[in-house]
Write a structure and sequence with these properties.
Layout lengths: L4 H36 L6 E14 L2 E11 L5 E10 L2 E11 L2 E12 L12 E2 L5 E2 L2 E2 L8 H14 L11 E7 L8 E6 L5 E5 L1
Antiparallel strand pairs: 1-2, 1-10, 2-3, 4-5, 4-9, 5-6, 7-8, 10-11
Helix pairs in contact: 1-2
């Protein structure tokens, strides 16, 4: 069977504009949905979103590890998921995705990553994704029982946008923020909160 490359190129040239058009429509629809969702629900300001305790370092078969517990906190101040484990390395960072829409700020813990040295610029090891612990069945469980299913679904839309699940351009509405935990004392609980100005803070409890 002889493949006519010219015919294939002609067909591809015909369908590519249609695919691009559908993608533009999809992006517009999704961005509108996220924008409307941000208008209907409260943002993250004034809330605790993460609780952390670092247990310390150890060596296992020649590799250094650091162990810690991360508790995701819902809007009612309750622990809705707890991640307790060890990571290869000496220190930990935690990343957040910040969404700015309608003069509101939405924060989503995105990943826990480990590193060997305190200073920046060195290679970061593979991390632990966090959105799997709060995005479930079309709802974002960072909203507690005081919120309706519709409101949790609206927050899920924003979370999906923030964490890149929709595969659309996020422009300047999403910003990655890295919090360095290398200066946290072992055995002390720390709280990550969003202040009234939409900024993250880390402080011992």
């Amino acid at each position: 069977m002889v493949i006519d490359k010219a015919y294939i190129k002609e067909k591809a040239a015909h369908y590519i504009p249609i695919i691009i058009l559908f993608y533009i429509i999809y992006c517009g629809f999704t961005l509108s949905k996220v924008y409307i969702a941000s208008k209907t629900i409260p943002d993250s300001t004034g809330k605790e979103i993460l609780r952390i305790i670092i247990f310390g370092n150890s060596q296992n078969e020649g590799d250094n590890t650091v162990s810690a517990t991360f508790s995701l906190i819902d809007s009612n101040g309750n622990e809705m998921a707890v991640i307790e484990r060890s990571w290869a390395g000496n220190y930990l960072n935690v990343n957040f995705n910040k969404v700015s829409l309608n003069k509101k700020f939405f924060y989503f813990p995105s990943e826990i990553v480990s590193k060997d040295k305190i200073f920046e610029g060195q290679k970061i090891k593979k991390g632990t994704k966090l959105n799997q612990y709060y995005d479930e069945n079309g709802q974002c469980l960072l909203f507690g029982y005081a919120f309706t299913k519709r409101q949790r679904h609206a927050l899920y839309d924003i979370s999906s946008f923030a964490n890149g699940r929709y595969n659309i351009p996020r422009f300047y509405t999403v910003k990655k923020i890295t919090m360095d935990l290398s200066y946290c004392r072992t055995g002390v609980y720390y709280s990550v909160r969003v202040d009234k100005d939409g900024l993250l803070s880390l402080a011992p409890l």
